[in-house]
Amino acid sequence: MTITPIPAFNDNYIWLMQANEQAVCVDPGEAAPVLAYLQQHRLSLHSILITHHHRDHIGGVADLQEAFPDAIIYGPEDIACVTQAMQEGDVLDVLGEPVVVWEVPGHTHNHIAYLLTIHGTAAPHVFCGDTLFSAGCGRVFCGTIEQLQHSLARFQSLPDATLFYPAHEYTASNLRFALSVEPDNQAAIAALAVATDTPTLPVTLAHEKAINPFLRLDSEQIQQQVALQGMSMINDAAVFASLRQLKNQF
């Protein structure tokens, strides 16, 4: 199996898995680039994985369904275009490989992630939508900040070699924020030098633990920056909420 990023809009990635002549795509916000890739590589679309309901993640589904009417649309149950609803613990067969569904709310109330295990590899490949970005996390819309923190903590429990496939290339701007709250973080400084000119995704969990402030709540420098802003730091949940508020204003 191969996994390919298909750029969409200004900063979206539509991730496409392929094996033999079959393909599965994740969060197709627009159809045209997916259709062009499928045609170029002579692939048939087997199914679509949806993480949440925002338009830049589902906007291309209708046109893809028209082109491939047998394609299965997996996703949260309250999204109209979904043909097979997914919930916590469900296991899919995606091109011969197992994919486990996790519920990871926060960005939205019904956000899910897909954990793919490719035969012969030790750590999963996680299609995390807008829950985790490199050096950042999603903004809270119709979920809660407590849900988002719990979802990121759950991701953080995975093996360090886990590869994350976020749906947006926000890395450079996220790193600038990360350095505003942890300016001495040498790993983040080095990452920003690379991210300015180079696509950064996918990323390992080990890398995110080194650069992502939302996974570094125990950093003394981050806690000091939160305190300097007059924001709460009574526990990890308060630091996380304060960081998300600072990022919203950044």
UniProtKB/TrEMBL annotation:
Name used for this protein in its record: Hydroxyacylglutathione hydrolase
Entries under CDD domains matching the protein: hydroxyacylglutathione_hydrolase_MBL-fold (cd07723)
Sequence positions that bind Zn(2+) 2: 56-57, 130, 168
InterPro entries: Clx_II_MBL, Glyoxalase_II_hydrolase, HAGH_C, Hydroxyacylglutathione_Hdrlase, Metallo-B-lactamas, RibonucZ/Hydroxyglut_hydro
Classification via SMART domains: Lactamase_B
Top enzyme class: hydrolase
Family under the similarity heading: Belongs to the metallo-beta-lactamase superfamily. Glyoxalase II family.
The protein's required cofactors: Zn(2+)
Top-level taxon in the UniProt lineage: Bacteria
SUPFAM superfamilies xref list: Metallo-hydrolase/oxidoreductase
Keywords: Hydrolase, Metal-binding, Zinc
Catalytic activity, as annotated: an S-(2-hydroxyacyl)glutathione + H2O = a 2-hydroxy carboxylate + glutathione + H(+)
NCBIfam families, alphabetized: GSH_gloB (TIGR03413)
Positions that bind Zn(2+) 1: 52, 54, 107, 130
Acetylation as UniProt keyword: no
Cofactor detail note: Binds 2 Zn(2+) ions per subunit.
